[in-house]
Amino acid sequence: MALKTEQAFAIWITGLPASGKSTIAGFLKNLLEERGVDVAVLESDVLRKIFSEDPRYGESDREEFYRRMIWIGVLLTRHGVPVIFDATANRRAWRDQARGQIPNFAEVYVDVPLKTCIERDPKGIYRSAAEGRADNVPGMQAAYEPPENPDLVIDGIREAPLDAARRIIAVLKDRRYWP
Q1: CB within 8 A of 27, min separation 6: which ones?
Q2: What is the pTM of this model?
Q3: What sign results for the dihedral spanned by CA atoms 164, 73, 17, 144?
Q4: 53: number of CA atoms within 13 Å, CB side?
Q5: Domains in the chain, please, with CATH?
C-alpha cells in the first residue's frame, strides 16, 4: 500500500536585503510549529554556503543558485513538507518559476524603502557595496524587481514581524493551503 502525501504549501518571502525577511520567516516558522506544522526554511544565506565554499553573486551565479533553491522547494513540497523561502530573489522570474512549479504557493513582499534597508544593514551588505567590496547588491548595483501581484504585502517599517507572520498564516488558511 502506498502512502498518500498531499502537495504542501510554499511561501516565498521577498524584499530587499535588510527588509526583515528572515525575522518574519523566523516568527512564521515558530507560529507554524506551535500549530503542529513542521516547516523547512530555505534561507538563501545558508544555502549559498552549502552550495559553494566561495559564493558568487553575479547574474549567472544567481541564476544557478535560484534554480537549485527552487528545485529543493519543489521536491520538499511534493513530499508533503511545507517550505518558507527566505530569499531576496531580486529577479521576478525566479519567484515566478517557483510559483509555476508549486501549486500551493504564495509570494509575500516585505516592502521597505532602500534608504531604511541601508540604515539597518545588519550584515554590512550595503556598506560593502558603498566601499566597492561588493558589486552586485540588489537595490544598488543590481536591480530588485518587486512582485507585480504579491499575495500579501507587508509594511516592513510599520508592521511588527509577529503580526506579519500572523497575516501570512491567515493567507494560508484563506487559500486552504493549511487547515
Answers
A1: 161, 162, 164, 165
A2: 0.91
A3: negative
A4: 0
A5: 10-174 (3.40.50.300)
In whole angstroms, give the CA distance from residue 75 to residue 64: 17
Closest C-alpha to 39, from 28, 47, 55, 52: 28
Q: Which helix (H) or strand (E) holds 74?
A: helix 59-78
Provide the grid cell at 113. Answer: 524603502
Euclidean distance between CA atoms 68 and 101, whole angstroms: 13
Is 43 in a helix, a strand, or coil? strand
- CA 29-153-35 angle, 5° bins: 25
Query: pLDDT for 105-161, tens place per residue?
Result: 999 999 999 999 999 989 888 998 888 888 888 888 889 999 999 999 999 999 999
Question: What letter does residue 140 receive in the DSSP assignment?
Answer: T
